[in-house]
Design goal:
The structure is a single chain. The protein is of the alpha+beta class. The protein has a single domain, classed as START domain (Alpha-D-Glucose-1,6-Bisphosphate, Chain A, domain 4). 29% of the residues lie in helices and 27% in strands. It has a six-stranded antiparallel sheet with strand order 1-6-5-4-3-2, covered by helices on one side. Helix 3 packs across helix 4. The chain starts with 13 loop residues before the first strand and ends with a helix.
Length: 180
């Protein structure tokens, strides 16, 4: 999982770029279909329209067959976690945005842009905005998306995946160096 780190182009924002094996329609399915989304991020439906509901049914231990003990600070997520968002942009297979964390009162927004490139590759640009300025949150979110995107790449390429928490823990240390 030797991908470059996300960047923080402005306060409360993290952005990732990944070149993925296409076509864009295949990647779109991994972003929007529960059974494919569950293989790299979380299960849950994405209602296909602006204003539609997005479900996030996280079970990180199910993202890999590898032994993947959960870190103590995330034990509250041991049995999974659930939340909802709503679609704010829906332009298949090019642009998807949705809210994240509405129930906490601190709503952020995630945007996925898919840009076709040569040789059946697709540039995925993921931008997560309105994250606030808490360094611990930025470290966790940066490491989280980085780890999830690594799993997505492994799935798209047909490779085995490392355990989410093992990778996330390693990446948290790297993102602490970047952010703090």
């Amino acid at each position: 999982m030797n991908q470059k780190h996300g960047i923080f182009p402005e306060p409360g924002t993290v952005r990732f770029e990944r070149l993925l094996p296409g076509p864009a329609e295949r990647i779109w399915d991994y972003l929007t279909k529960s059974e494919l989304k569950a293989k790299w991020l979380s299960a849950g439906d994405v209602e296909p329209r602006v204003g539609g509901k997005v479900e996030f049914k996280f079970k990180h231990s199910g993202l890999s067959e590898a032994d993947d003990p959960i870190p103590e600070k995330y034990k509250h997520m041991q049995d999974g976690t659930y939340f909802e968002g709503r679609v704010t942009a829906w332009e298949p297979p090019r642009l998807l945005s949705y809210t994240w964390g509405e129930e906490t009162g601190e709503t952020s927004e995630v945007t996925f842009e898919l840009i076709p490139k040569k040789n059946n590759k697709v540039l995925l640009i993921l931008t997560h905005v309105h994250l606030g300025d808490d360094p611990d949150v930025l470290v966790s979110v940066g490491a989280g998306w980085h780890a999830h995107l690594g799993i997505l790449i492994d799935r798209l390429e047909g490779n085995d995946t490392e355990g989410f928490w093992v990778v996330h823990t390693r990446l948290e240390a790297e993102y602490e160096e970047i952010i703090k």
